[in-house]
Specification:
InterPro entries: TPR-like_helical_dom_sf, Zinc_finger_MYND_domain, Znf_MYND. Keywords: Metal-binding, Zinc, Zinc-finger. Pfam families: zf-MYND. This is Zinc finger, MYND-type containing 12. Among the domains are: about 10-75, no CATH class; about 270-370, no CATH class. The chain has a three-stranded antiparallel β-sheet. It starts with a helix and ends in an 8-residue tail after the last helix. It is built from 15 helices and three strands. It is globular, with a radius of gyration of 24 Å. It has helices at about 5-15, 55-65, 70-75, 85-115, 120-135, 145-155, 160-175, 180-200, 200-220, 230-240, 245-265, 280-300, 305-325, 325-340, 350-365, and strands at about 15, 40, 50. About 35% of the residues are buried. It is mostly helical.
Length: about 375
């Protein structure tokens, strides 16, 4: 039985038809994804509703499985409290849970986007937007991250008109919020750059990515893994323009930044420890994996000319997966790094690569290997 079939079977077991008599007179339940009239409900939380099985399945895979129980206290009718202090305490608790829900759904959507699962990211991004509206109001700057997630998903799906709509809303919100953070500004320009790239407005894309790098460097510094994401996207545009020398230079900057960052993280771990903690969240790991693999794929088309850079990128991927608890992937990329290192005169990384391969081989039997 395939994973998709198993997932559908599991969701089917959590589905029941809505009993109209259980609702207040005149009340209509709306589908979680499309806001049309709902006919089904999740039997696990009983506070989430759907128009059909297809939308329940999409929501379960997209986000609901992770937040099903968290929704119960948020969406259950507020109990009556006679004392004002009790009412205030209850409101504060609900607010904290809503803020937690925003962060969880935002992180899930971002991870799926980095993995290229654009359709699957939509339920989490939509939930993040709705929750942010409930907490902050319909025009607050705190809604911008959710707009950007929805825009990125729609760019990935080729729905450019919808992406442009979300970005226009985000841009307008930022323009009327002078105190908006540098982080939000860099994220906005990064997504505008993605849209311009998709529409083949490459010069416009480069301008937005340059602004992305500027705002990110103001917040995090030039030699930071957040900032180098803008360099990576700029390099991809230069590849489209067949300016390979510029692209290669930017790729080198990205590879060096990640290699330095991962090397420092690896040095903090005790060699004799049996288990490694995750050094960054799943979304960051997915982003790093996506960027480094893409660079390695481009560079492997000319291995002799790019051997030094291949070594750096493959070694980075090996460290990334070792730190993430996947010694099998660390071994795979470590071997690639070692092979590339034989093609360059400078063997300064060879000893470190060999040490990592030895560590990964030792850790393999003791760790659960991630897929």
């Amino acid at each position: 039985m395939s994973s998709i079939t198993r997932s559908k079977s599991h969701v089917s077991a959590l589905t029941s038809a809505i009993n109209p008599l259980a609702n207040p007179r005149g009340a209509k339940k709306q589908c979680e994804l499309c806001q049309n009239l709902a006919h089904l409900q999740c039997t696990k939380c009983r506070v989430t509703f759907y128009c059909d099985m297809e939308h329940q399945q999409a929501d379960w895979v997209g986000i609901h499985e992770k937040i099903c129980q968290l929704l119960i206290p948020i969406r259950t009718a507020t109990p009556f409290h006679s004392l004002q202090a009790d009412r205030d305490h209850h409101r504060t608790q609900i607010l904290h849970r809503q803020e937690e829900l925003i962060e969880i759904s935002r992180a899930v959507a971002q991870k799926k986007l980095f993995e290229g699962k654009y359709q699957e990211s939509l339920p989490a991004a939509q939930l993040s937007l709705r929750c942010a509206m409930d907490v902050y109001g319909p025009s607050a700057v705190q809604l911008v991250p959710a707009y950007l997630l929805l825009a990125e998903a729609n760019v990935g799906l080729g729905s450019l008109a919808q992406a442009e709509g979300y970005l226009s809303q985000a841009e307008w919100t930022v323009m009327k919020t002078p105190e908006c953070s540098q982080t939000v500004r860099h994220q906005l320009h990064r997504n505008l750059g993605r849209l311009y790239t998709a529409t083949e407005n490459l010069e416009g894309a480069l301008l937005h990515f340059a602004n992305d790098v500027y705002y990110a460097s103001e917040e995090y510094g030039l030699d930071n893994i957040v900032t180098c994401g803008g360099y990576f996207l700029m390099a991809n545009v230069f590849i489209k323009q067949e300016k390979m020398d510029i692209a290669s230079s930017l790729y080198t900057e990205v590879a060096s930044t990640w290699h330095s960052h991962l090397t420092k993280l690896l040095e903090t771990h005790t060699p004799g420890s049996m288990m490694l903690e995750h050094s960054f969240d799943e979304a960051q790991q997915a982003e790093a994996d996506q960027m480094l693999r893409a660079m390695l794929k481009v560079q492997e088309s000319s291995p002799k000319q790019a051997a030094a850079q291949n070594t750096l990128v493959a070694h980075s991927l090996a460290m990334l997966w070792f730190l993430g608890g996947s010694p099998d992937k660390a071994l795979e990329f470590g071997r690639k790094a070692l092979q590339s290192s034989q093609l360059v005169p400078d063997h300064s990384l060879t000893e470190r690569i060999q040490s990592l391969l030895q560590l990964a081989a030792e850790r393999g039997p003791h760790l659960t290997i991630a897929s």
